[in-house]
């Protein structure tokens, strides 16, 4: 009998024995360097020497060992009941040998079960698939003399594991034993694209981004890489950027090139795409999405040449994609938690800070969690209309760059209240599932009724989610019952998912909408909304706020709106919205560039720093008028603000707020919270953190001056 035949029958016997009721003794050894001893059992055909020569296994157990040792530190969540590795059972392994041959070649993959237990008998998930690290490259090519044009390289190859014979992805490959990630990346480009590239031209985007985040040092020895499936697999992917100029004819020659290593059964075809097609073609490839998100500029000013609305959509897509893979921008500072000096009480909730993100940025509730991760105390989504509507024709968003301002005439474009309700419902149920409550209506009910320990809208302690509703453009303004019906429909669909409901009667881009701020129609609409909100299918209905125009600023107009607020039972006012006026440039006497001067002629609502003085004035005016309507006293003021939460009606300040000092001024003028929008469009994802830091600095200065 030949050696290969004997090996075949031995493996068949080992695999069949358990099913025949015959015990099959497995080889085992003690894992070196572990105390207490960790016993490793092996399947047929695998020796201790071969397993310990498999770098992925060696690296994995070394990383796990160091992470377990970190439990001795007092701050570790498992410090009081530490876990330990007791045993490892290697289930199976794969090698470079062809199908049916004895497994004597280089090991590629190992599947094992690790027994990780503490003294209570509690276990951690221990099913592990080991394959080691990989490298992938986003290749961006510019034709010589055309720097504005960008092409990217993808590959198309068979991926039977995904059930595909034509899977499109970025060039990628596993690391060799020496673990040099740049060499591996360059090697894969040579094998899959037939291009020789210098390792010095490769930029490790994982390292670049983590350096920018200034994350606190991690005690665990994790790689500076992306872990695409850490729930069961050790794989880490180093993501590189390679950007070069080439002759256009050479770039075009890459398209359709056939490549791949015959010895590894690879059949690869190179695909050349315009950069704008990257997300569409690579939407199923996690490497593509991650590489795109890491290479996308995070500061909107870098995209100043892009249409303002396209930049808005790109920003939403960026946050959506990065949040899905857990690599989204987020606030790293722990100041809200540690210092606690920006806490405010709003509608009975103690918020971590008084900064909110206004409605309009996330119009259809696609990225509330990604926005909440940026550190605000409140995020407002919407406005949602009863039926989907396109809004006004494009172009409809314009930058006034010299003033950090925007003019928009979106016209409340919305996918509709039903679409938003589905988005928010799935988000709540996913939260319930992730926290062990199940994934059904009963689980949703636990959260809606406040029994899960988080606000039912935001799902985060110390944060709130506001949902803005509006009427459809086609609903006649003269038919108040129909208008009220629009708002009631939205409230019926969305109230249960909101911590705060916002009624928008002040958009300057929906004809006739601002006419609804007159006392009679406004009272009728708000009364209907409050009545419907109280029917929300949960224990505690959401409070209702009305969003008013900064252009309705006369004493009579403000008093009329306040009268409607009191008569209807609305809980507060958002002051205000964009303005139809064109404020004077700042600083005083500044001469606008010709382009910005021309942009000011565009029809639409203006937003930007120039609105702050009017916002501040209106906050004071509304505070005085609203407080005249009640005999209740104010609640106890916060440590550093005149108003933590008003005993009468709550005010949110919105309009022109760009820094911490302005936020403090608005709070001390009578607002409970300040909302930002345009400041984020120009300042980027770190704007909330910056404003909070400025507030803390200003508070410290004020305290020191008092001393």
TrEMBL record:
Pathway membership, UniProt: Pyrimidine metabolism; UMP biosynthesis via de novo pathway; orotate from (S)-dihydroorotate (quinone route): step 1/1
GO molecular function: dihydroorotate dehydrogenase (quinone) activity
Record-annotated Nudix hydrolase domain positions: 131-296
Membrane-traversing stretches: none
Keyword Flavoprotein tagged: yes
PANTHER family according to UniProt: DIHYDROOROTATE DEHYDROGENASE (QUINONE), MITOCHONDRIAL, DIHYDROOROTATE DEHYDROGENASE (QUINONE), MITOCHONDRIAL-RELATED
Family assignment from sequence similarity: Belongs to the dihydroorotate dehydrogenase family. Type 2 subfamily.
Protein name as catalogued: Dihydroorotate dehydrogenase (quinone), mitochondrial
Organism: Peltaster fructicola
């Amino acid at each position: 009998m030949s050696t290969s035949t004997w090996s075949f029958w031995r493996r068949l016997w080992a695999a069949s024995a358990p099913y025949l009721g015959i015990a099959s003794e497995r080889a085992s050894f003690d894992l070196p360097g572990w105390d207490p001893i960790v016993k490793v059992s092996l399947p047929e055909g695998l020796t201790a020497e071969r397993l310990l020569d498999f770098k992925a296994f060696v690296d994995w157990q070394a990383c796990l060992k160091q992470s377990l040792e970190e439990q001795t530190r007092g701050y570790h969540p498992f410090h009081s009941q530490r876990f330990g590795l007791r045993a490892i059972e290697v289930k199976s392994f794969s090698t470079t040998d062809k199908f049916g041959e004895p497994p004597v070649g280089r090991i590629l993959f190992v599947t094992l079960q690790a027994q990780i237990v503490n003294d209570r008998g509690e276990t951690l998930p221990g099913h592990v698939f080991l394959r080691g690290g990989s490298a992938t490259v986003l290749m961006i090519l510019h034709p010589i003399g055309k720097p504005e044009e960008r092409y990217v390289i993808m590959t198309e190859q068979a991926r039977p594991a995904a059930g595909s014979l034509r899977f499109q992805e970025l060039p990628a490959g596993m690391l060799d034993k020496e673990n040099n990630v740049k060499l591996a990346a360059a090697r894969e480009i040579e094998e899959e694209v037939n291009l020789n590239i210098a390792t010095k031209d490769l930029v490790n985007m994982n390292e670049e981004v983590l350096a920018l985040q200034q994350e606190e040092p991690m005690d665990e020895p994790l790689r500076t890489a992306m872990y695409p499936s850490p729930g069961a697999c050790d794989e880490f992917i180093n993501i590189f950027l390679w950007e070069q100029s080439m002759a256009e004819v050479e770039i075009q020659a890459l398209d359709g090139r056939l490549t791949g290593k015959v010895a590894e059964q690879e059949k690869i075809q190179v695909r050349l795409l315009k950069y704008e097609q990257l997300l569409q073609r690579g939407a199923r490839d996690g490497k593509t999405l991650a590489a795109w998100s890491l290479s996308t500029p995070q500061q909107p000013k870098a995209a100043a040449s892009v249409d303002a609305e396209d930049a808005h959509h790109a920003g939403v897509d960026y946050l959506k994609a990065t949040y899905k893979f857990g690599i989204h921008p987020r606030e790293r500072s722990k100041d809200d938690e540690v210092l606690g000096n920006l806490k405010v009480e709003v509608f009975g909730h103690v918020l971590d800070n008084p900064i909110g993100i206004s409605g309009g940025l996330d119009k259809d509730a696609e990225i509330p969690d990604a926005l909440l991760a940026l550190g605000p105390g409140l995020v407002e989504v919407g406005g949602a209309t009863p039926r989907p509507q396109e809004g006004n024709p494009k172009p409809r968003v314009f930058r006034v760059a010299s003033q950090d301002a925007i003019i928009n005439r979106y016209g409340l474009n919305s996918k509709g209240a039903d679409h938003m309700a589905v988005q928010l419902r799935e988000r709540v149920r996913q939260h319930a599932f992730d926290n062990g409550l199940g994934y059904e209506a009963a689980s949703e009910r636990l959260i809606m009724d406040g029994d899960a320990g988080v606000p039912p809208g935001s799902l985060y302690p110390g944060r709130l989610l506001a949902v803005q509703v509006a009427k459809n453009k086609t609903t006649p303004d003269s038919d108040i019952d129909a208008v009220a019906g629009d708002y009631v429909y939205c409230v019926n669909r969305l109230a249960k998912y909101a911590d705060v409901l916002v009624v928008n009667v002040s958009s300057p881009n929906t004809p006739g909408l601002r006419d609804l701020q007159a006392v009679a129609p406004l009272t009728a609409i708000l009364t209907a909304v409050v009545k419907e909100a109280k029917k929300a299918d949960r224990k505690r209905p959401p409070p209702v706020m009305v969003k008013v125009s900064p252009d309705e600023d006369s004493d009579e107009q403000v008093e009329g709106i306040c009268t409607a607020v009191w008569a209807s039972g609305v809980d507060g006012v958002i002051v205000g919205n964009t303005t139809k006026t064109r404020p004077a440039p700042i600083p005083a006497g500044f001469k606008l560039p010709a382009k910005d001067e021309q942009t000011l002629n565009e029809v639409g609502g203006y937003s930007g720093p120039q609105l702050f003085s009017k916002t501040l004035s209106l906050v004071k005016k509304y505070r005085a008028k609203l407080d005249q309507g009640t005999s209740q006293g104010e609640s106890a003021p916060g440590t550093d603000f005149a108003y933590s939460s008003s005993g009468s009606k709550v005010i949110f300040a919105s309009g022109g707020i760009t820094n911490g000092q302005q936020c403090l001024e608005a709070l001390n003028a009578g607002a409970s919270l300040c909302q930002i929008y345009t400041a984020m469009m120009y300042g980027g994802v770190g704007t909330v953190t910056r404003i909070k830091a400025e507030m803390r600095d200003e508070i410290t200065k004020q305290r020191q001056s008092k001393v």
